[in-house]
Amino acid sequence: MGKLIIPLIVIIIAIVIVVPQTLFVVDETQMAIVTRFGEFKRSHTTPGLQVKTPFAEQVTKFDKRLLRVDVAPASLLTSDKRNLLIDSYARYRIVDPLIFFKNLRNETLADARVGDIVNSQLRQEVARDLQTEVISETREDIMDQVTKDSNRIEITRRDVFETFEGIYDPFVTVRIDEDANDEVRPRIATDQELIILESGARPESLAGLNITYFASIRKALGIVIVDVRIKRADFPPDIETSVFSRMEAERERIASGLRAEGSQRDSEIRANVDRQVNIILETAEGTSALLRGQAEQEAIEILAKSLEKNPDFYSFRRSLEAYKVIMDSKTTVILDPDSDLLRFLSDPSGGS
């Protein structure tokens, strides 16, 4: 029994050491490549349990999910010569672990390379756009163009023929820039121009034009940039105060204009109301005078009819009204004895 313990312990130790060096697991969120003394052997892009040669082969795993890199903020100049401090981020995915390992080694270096690519494309694209376009709804179109351009990296003509399969390689793009100031986006070379460029680097027919070769980063770096977005687009600190002052002055000018317009509208409404009030009052006074005239006319007609029926009674009533006006306890009236006004005082019948 004692003789079996030592071999058993040796076997257990060997299993504990050898098995982890032989078997490895690729998670569903990962990809892996196997190298032997630094030389690539194979890649694993599907999850599961895998086998490698113990001690001689090493496994490097990469995340195959969407990765995010925060691009360093940069001060960029727009086409209308305005500075903007742009803070952006990008999302990319590893699609070819072998190319990724050969050219970028790990995610840290990949983040730095992606940040440089995105910043370069942002600088070129923002230089072709107005400040208002960068900070308005058209930013979406700008970001789509930056994302598209970021999936290409510039390469040399030598790389086109040594690393790739020449100018007609599907992962190679030739662009021709006809604008020395780079304010217009370069165009893709035509088939005739590609034939000319294949025969020579600087053909005379394309003299004066800037010719640039691009390769897909999928083929060059083993990644794909899925999306680029601007988090913030601010004014630089040195001009932020002056910009805000101009914005405040502009808003104050607009507010003053609105207040002036409101005051003018208030005056117009008040003048209109006053005019309507005057019209209503004058109409009412005219109607009132007309009614009073009609009433007086009717009263005169009634009095005239009454006078015709009984003139003495009308004289008696008018005299009483006169007495009521001119006579009281504090008034002394001196009249001629033959006055008509005293006729009813001396004789109630009025001398009839």
Tell me what you see in this structure.
By secondary structure, this protein is of the alpha+beta class. Among the domains are: 1-63, no CATH class; 66-165 and 216-239, Band 7 domain (Tetrahydropterin Synthase, Chain A); 311-352, no CATH class. It is 50% helix and 22% strand. It is built from eleven helices and 13 strands. Strands 6, 7, 8 and 13 form a four-stranded antiparallel sheet that branches. The longest helix is centred in the C-terminal third of the chain and has 73 residues, at 237-309. 13% of the residues are buried.
CATH topology of the domain at 66-165 and 216-239: Tetrahydropterin Synthase, Chain A
Distance between the termini: 175 Å
CATH architecture of the domain at 66-165 and 216-239: 2-Layer Sandwich
Q: Can you identify the CATH superfamily of the domain at 66-165 and 216-239?
A: Band 7 domain
Largest sheet: 4 strands, antiparallel
What is the string of SSEs from the N terminus onward? HEEEEEEEEHHHHEHEEHEHEHHH
Structural class given helices, strands, pairing? alpha+beta
Strand content: 15-25%
Helix content class: 40-55%
Which descriptor suits the 3D outline? Answer: elongated
Rg (C-alpha, Å): 53 Å
Total of DSSP H or I helical runs spanning 4+ residues: 11
- Kindly state the mean pLDDT as a whole number? 83
Count of beta strands: 13
Task: Indicate the low-confidence ranges by residue numbers.
Answer: none
Q: Given this structure, which CATH class of the domain at 66-165 and 216-239 is correct? A: Alpha Beta
